[in-house]
Amino acid sequence: MDFNLQADSREISVFRKEVQEWLQENMRGAEELRWSATWSTRENEEEYGFRRKLARKLGGRGWLFPMFPVEYGGGGLAIDHQLVLESELDRYGISLAAVFYTLARIVAPVILKWGTEEQKRNFLPPMLRGEVSVWQVLTEPQGGSDIATCRTKAIRDGDHYVVNGQKVMVGYHHPPDFLWTLVCTDPSGPRHENLGWLYIPGNSDGITIQPMRLMMGIKNAVFFDNVRVPAFNLVGGENNGWSVANTHLELEHGGEGRVGADPLVERVVEYCRETRVAATPLLEDTSVRDMIADMMIELHVVHLFARRNFWHRYVREPHPYGGAQFRYYQRMVRLRNGERLQQIMGYHALVPDLTVNEVVDFEYVVRSGPGMLHGGGTLDTDRLVFARRVGLGRPTKEKAPETI
């Protein structure tokens, strides 16, 4: 891996200056906002509006999905340009993947790989321009992490599918424009050979969304009652949904990679420098310094795992177990960091601070530790994928699914 910028240095320098000036203009007012996390208990309409507007502006320049083809609304740029955009956005405490809450960052690559040319030209441009929000809709009440147990049925009726069923633990505060939905297209078919993916308009008749207020934030239950969806919206083919799901899950489970850093340690150091016990700053306590050092080391490892996966994805060399390895380690580090904060701060770690970015709000870090162990599959899911990819328990190793 080589993360040095490869394109002509003058070209990249000019592009970086362009991005810096553009962000300086378009991030005005952001300093008064305090970004919320992906699974958020904060409902800040002003922030949400700012993020949606920012996404449309980035999308209009092809910068929201900088490496996607221009004909679908992307920027047609190189990995060097993506790294510049990510690093400059990181200065504002945000990333391209989290400009606003939309799973388009996962759904768009899957459609680019599995969609027909006509589907790509219909579905991708609004996503890549930041004009629509998309929820991924997989989990069902009886299935948990085992999405192959899908019971939400989609039965073909002429030029439409009729969808009936229920999904849980999905979405965000605001209703979606589209639901990227795993369905059972052949209820009598064998497991893994009876699934499909439908791109369902969120305003379709028969869809009911009920909020689920959880420790980690607001999620939803979605009910489908005779929802009619054009057959054109089936991506990847009937009964081929498991192959499509492998691509989707590889991205969701860390295979996409990221390049942003975690700002938590910086705020912990600031807190320990300013907080005194018996007139002595906490930072002078050797046990506190040890815990901060452990946090710093482990977060740096998380960052390197993410960058490695990012690199492998974009040079088209899938890392067999990189996604599961990264995701498992990241979640365990988050859990350990919540425990460390409680050791350092005591009960103060349990007091929310609405004046800061939620991802560095100590109370949120503590609360999100156990909560994040279950989102997008459990730790057991990570371990199982990792074992299969390194060849444990089976005669042959499982290959990493291709993404883009």
Structure description:
With 404 residues, the chain is α+β, with helices and mostly antiparallel strands. The chain folds into 3 domains: 9-100, no CATH class; 134-239, Beta Barrel (Butyryl-CoA Dehydrogenase, subunit A, domain 2), CATH 2.40.110.10; 257-390, Up-down Bundle (Butyryl-CoA Dehydrogenase, subunit A, domain 3). It has 11 helices and 10 strands. It has helices at residues 9-26, 45-60, 79-90, 104-114, 117-128, 241-255, 264-274, 286-314, 322-345, 362-371, 379-390; strands at 134-137, 153-157, 160-170, 178-184, 195-201, 207-214, 217-230, 234-235, 276-277, 280-281. Strands 1-4-5-8 form a 4-stranded mixed sheet, with helices on one face. The longest helix has 29 residues, at 286-314. The two termini are 18 Å apart.
Give me the strand/helix succession: HHHHHEEEEEEEEHHEEHHHH
Could you tell me the strand content as a percent range? 15-25%
What structural category characterises the helix and strand content? alpha+beta
Radius of gyration: 22 Å
Helix content: 40-55%
- Please report the total strand number as a whole number: 10
The multimeric state of the shown protein is single chain
What topology emerges from the helices and strands here?
Elements: H1 9-26, H2 45-60, H3 79-90, H4 104-114, H5 117-128, E1 134-137, E2 153-157, E3 160-170, E4 178-184, E5 195-201, E6 207-214, E7 217-230, E8 234-235, H6 241-255, H7 264-274, E9 276-277, E10 280-281, H8 286-314, H9 322-345, H10 362-371, H11 379-390
Parallel strand pairs: 1-4
Antiparallel strand pairs: 2-3, 3-7, 4-5, 5-8, 6-7, 9-10
